[in-house]
Write a structure and sequence with these properties.
This protein is 34% helix and 23% strand. With 256 residues, the protein is an alpha/beta fold. It has one domain (2-242): Rossmann fold, CATH 3.40.50.300. It has a 6-stranded mixed sheet with strand order 6-7-8-3-9-10, with helices on both faces. A 4-stranded antiparallel sheet has the order 2-1-4-5, covered by helices on one side. Helix 6 (172-183) links the parallel strand 7 and strand 8 (188-192). Helix 3 runs parallel beside helix 5. It is globular, with a radius of gyration of 19 Å. The relative contact order is 0.16.
């Protein structure tokens, strides 16, 4: 199913102030893959993601979604295929009610009202937020806003789901619910995150970015066990791979 493929070739992006945020990134993601994009703050993760459905335009290089290059002529069609969940839900929620926010995308597709209502209801049920449908988004908690932002993307039935730091601000219960939700999304997932334990749960492949370049691309567990690579990229092992500091003490060592 080639329409699910994401291909980035020699992508470069320099901001107006001269900051070179992305410097020659290339990769190919196939249908059904769940891929993490990891790196330290300022590595270029968010800038990369904002190119994948045309919110930013490359300074150089190309992006292809399925059989189509991402251009001004194709961007609207590609945004129906690639659903983007921003790092800050307030960047995504702008309508008077939750229902209106989740319905915004389907309405712009020209779908009939009955189908729009069906999509909104199903999307809100999937994120366990149907009871919020009549509330104004600005009165929601951070976790509730995150759930509604995800629902607003799911209502578009995307084939590719792109998420930027999806667990930011979530309590443990909301984080676990998000992981369960994403595990049930059977199409392509691309997740930029500092939450490496989430990556262990969801992503069989990890791409490491450092200073705007890809420094590693491979099986998640292999990458997270490569201590020199992690140190070079200013990353630490996921908590579950770090071991217990108490259990790892030498026999007879009871010092703090």
């Amino acid at each position: 199913m080639s329409h699910h493929i994401v291909e980035v070739k020699d992508l470069r992006h320099t901001y107006p102030d001269g900051t070179a945020a992305v410097q020659g990134i290339s990769f190919r993601i196939h249908h059904g893959e769940s891929v993490a994009i990891v790196g330290a703050n300022g590595a270029g993760k968010s800038t990369l993601l904002l190119h994948l459905n045309g919110y930013l335009t490359p300074s150089e290089g190309t992006i292809r979604i399925g059989d189509f290059p991402l251009t001004k002529d194709t961007v609207q069609d590609i945004r129906r295929t690639v659903g983007m969940v921003f790092q800050d839900p307030d960047d995504q929620l702008f309508m008077p009610t939750v229902f209106d926010d989740v319905a915004f995308g389907p309405l712009n597709l020209g779908l009939p009202p009955d189908e729009v209502t069906e999509r909104v209801t199903e999307a809100l049920k999937r994120v366990e937020a149907l009871e919020l449908k009549d509330r104004p988004p600005y009165k929601l908690s951070g976790g509730q806003k995150r759930a509604v932002a995800i629902a607003s993307v799911l209502s578009m039935s995307p084939d590719i789901l792109v998420m930027d730091e999806p667990t930011t601000g979530l309590d443990p219960h909301a984080r676990r619910r998000l992981i369960e939700l994403l595990a049930g999304f059977r199409h392509t997932k691309i997740i930029a995150t500092h939450d490496l334990d989430l990556v262990m749960d969801l992503c069989e492949r990890t791409i490491v970015i450092h200073q705007g370049e890809v420094t590693a691309d491979g099986p998640t567990l292999e990458i997270f066990q490569n201590q020199p690579l992690l140190e070079k990229s200013h990353l630490e092992k996921p908590l579950r791979l770090q071991g217990c500091p108490v259990c790892s003490r030498a026999p007879g060592d009871e010092s703090d």
